[in-house]
Amino acid sequence: MHITHIVAAGMGGIRTAGDLVAWMQMTRKMKINEAKQYVADKLGIAVSDLTNEETMRDLREKLDIGVITAVAGSAKGMRAKRHIAELLEININSVDLVASQLAARK
Length: 106
Hints:
The chain has one domain.
């Protein structure tokens, strides 16, 4: 269901900020406009920039929160998700699960 919602939201997913807005809708039960404003504030940009692929590509690389095409040395997968969780101040179950498994190994 989560992937369906992210795709249906139509904000470009990881190409722009659609995934970030969807996280806020799902984890904080925010309405779309409230979620967009929250994400824009956390990123330090205008709401209108959330759908700008060029702006978001640069910002996603700078914040190391994942981009569509791999960039050598940048966060991918779970590391990018961890950065997103920290940036948006949310819990992401898969990130928490991996962290607890790593902590148990120590």
